[in-house]
Design goal:
By secondary structure, the protein is of the alpha/beta class. The protein has eight helices and eleven strands. The chain has helices spanning 26-41, 58-62, 68-92, 114-122, 140-150, 184-190, 197-205, 220-225; strands at residues 6-11, 45-50, 97-101, 110-111, 126-130, 155-160, 165-166, 178-179, 181-183, 210-214, 233-236. The chain has a nine-stranded mixed beta sheet with strand order 4-3-5-2-1-6-10-11-9, with helices on both faces. Strands 7-8 form a two-stranded antiparallel sheet. Helix 1 (26-41) links the parallel strand 1 and strand 2 (45-50). The longest helix has 25 residues, at 68-92. The radius of gyration is 17 Å and the shape is globular. The relative contact order is 0.16.
């Protein structure tokens, strides 16, 4: 019995760098596409949002002299590049998909709206939502929360390079302890950097669970969505 019927998977742009440390690693992209295709073919409806940090990050660009609005627009375009790459990889894996963009960008993708995206999901396609929210000053975390809520998903899955949420950064503090489950309020009280404040508040107010897990370990997504294994950390309202 599947644990989730419809999910939104949030991937970081940096995760696409793989071992090469920049841009898009073809092997990492292929690994992601293969597993996502397997999940979709199992009957789970999958929407995806990818960040653009492997190409350009608007906030860091603003600290280097870029206008913040233009910098964020560059970052949104970076997410479109990553989304096109994933769409191509899914095509190669035999998985039908539809790329949606937050702002009109034909023929690159279809202008996003909730009902077309849900139709695509119901047809068995992977819906890739690119371009963030279409507005500056919002992160792809917030874009992910917005799309997950709009598309009436059962949960938002945040794929990272660590296996969950810890009391501290486990890469810096070996004594950090992992949570199996934690409430949004505790995330806020502890100031844990799961997502930005806007995204966290949106999920909390809309009672949308988040699962933070290690996406870079092959098979984890299948374990979570098909096998129903309790991996990563689940963030809930209460």
């Amino acid at each position: 019995m599947k644990k989730y019927r419809r999910v939104l998977l949030k991937l970081s742009g940096e995760s696409l760098q793989g071992e090469q440390g920049y841009g898009i690693d073809p092997q990492r992209l292929q690994d992601y596409a293969t597993e996502i295709a397997q999940i979709a073919k199992s009957g789970v409806q999958v929407a995806i949002v990818i960040g653009g940090g492997n190409i350009f990050r608007g906030l860091s660009g603003a600290t280097k002299g870029f206008d913040r609005v233009k910098g964020d627009q560059m970052g949104m375009l970076a997410t479109v590049i990553n989304s096109l790459a994933l769409s191509s990889a899914l095509d190669a894996a035999g998985q039908r998909n539809q790329l949606f963009t937050a702002t009109p960008m034909s023929p690159v993708g279809k202008h996003y709206n909730k009902w077309d995206a849900i139709d695509a999901l119901e047809e068995g396609k992977v819906a890739i939502c690119a371009g963030g929210t279409g507005n500056p000053y919002f992160t792809t975390d917030t874009g992910s929360s917005l799309r997950a809520i709009e598309l009436e998903t059962d949960a938002m899955l945040k794929g990272t390079r660590v296996d969950g949420i810890y009391t501290a950064d486990p890469e810096k503090d070996p004594s950090a302890v992992k949570f199996d489950e934690i409430t949004y309020q505790e995330v806020l009280n502890r100031r844990l950097k799961v997502m930005d404040l806007t995204a966290t508040t949106m999920c909390m107010e809309n009672n949308l669970p988040i699962v933070v897990f290690d996406m870079d370990t092959p098979g984890n997504l299948t374990k979570l969505l098909v096998d129903g294994e309790a991996i990563g950390t689940r963030v809930v309202s209460e």
